[in-house]
Amino acid sequence: MGAQAKGTIMVLLSAIFFGLLPFFAIKTYAEGFDINSLLLYRYGFAFALIGLFCAYKKISIQINKKQFSLLLIASFVGTMMTTYTLFLSYQYISSGLASTLHFVYPIITLVLAGIIYKEKLTSRKIIALTLSLLGIALVSVGSGLTINVMGVLLALVSGFFYALYILCLANAELKKISPFTVVFWIFGITALLFFVKCLFADGINTNLTGTALFYIVNLSFWSTFLAVVLFYLGMKYTGPGNASLLSTLEPLTGILAGAFVFNEVMDLKSFLAISLILTSVLIVIQYGKKAKYKWLFHRTTVRRLKRA
């Protein structure tokens, strides 16, 4: 099997495992767990697993003060607030729609990059943004308007936080260390943040029944630790552009899980909304790939001219 094919399989498996997040979360809710305790156990177990992985691979986990500050911000915004708002949205709208709405983060990242880094807003970007807004509008209207709006807002806010997380991780300081070192510290810091949140909220749920433990461990292993490791390993072979493109399978997995496991109804309006949002994401990702190749072509051409 070639390196490209191997990387593609890894990233696709990662997207499928990430897409199972709502399945494990909703099943754990049914066992009487609140969001804070669920996420504490999720990141606590995942932190232990990534720690063992780094030890086995002999990956250094040492960081400096500046890197720690950046990882603290990334953990609070990117994992704590992202997952909290996303998991909360599952209580208001279907898991499939919540996962899809969260996946507009490439669009949000695009807009924020334009504001922060003054990136040009091209016609392709405008089309993608328009499609995503139309999809969101379709989701927001219809029966149960109040509940839908609350769920939609929570899912979109989770996407907004994740976009901030991506911009934070793009800092040059964090590129100096292994991505697995980054994951190690983010999982650990996030687990600590939810531990503190549990202490100030309703306490830590220690009623770990066999069923609850089963779903939490699966959530931590498949949809957190293994999903992250497979994505990073696969990205080494496919490149970040292709990896992002393949990751669009994630919301589709959530949709299928919601339809087949929880009997969530997928009407025409929801189908159109999801199609519009996923199309907008694909446009953004494809644009990023073309821009990257154009830049590489330009750089190669300049080098050849200098050699001539």
UniProtKB/TrEMBL annotation:
Alphabetical keyword list: Membrane, Transmembrane, Transmembrane helix
Q: Give the highest taxon in the source lineage.
A: Bacteria
InterPro entries tied to this protein = EamA_dom (IPR000620), EmrE-like (IPR037185)
Transmembrane domains' residue ranges: 7-26, 38-56, 68-90, 96-117, 126-145, 151-170, 182-200, 212-233, 245-262, 268-288
Record keyword Membrane present = yes
A GO CC annotation recorded here is: membrane
Identify the taxonomic lineage of the organism of origin.
Bacteria, Pseudomonadati, Bacteroidota, Bacteroidia, Marinilabiliales
Please give the name of this protein: EamA domain-containing protein
Record-linked Pfam families: EamA (PF00892)
Report the residue ranges that make up the EamA domain in this protein.
6-140, 150-285
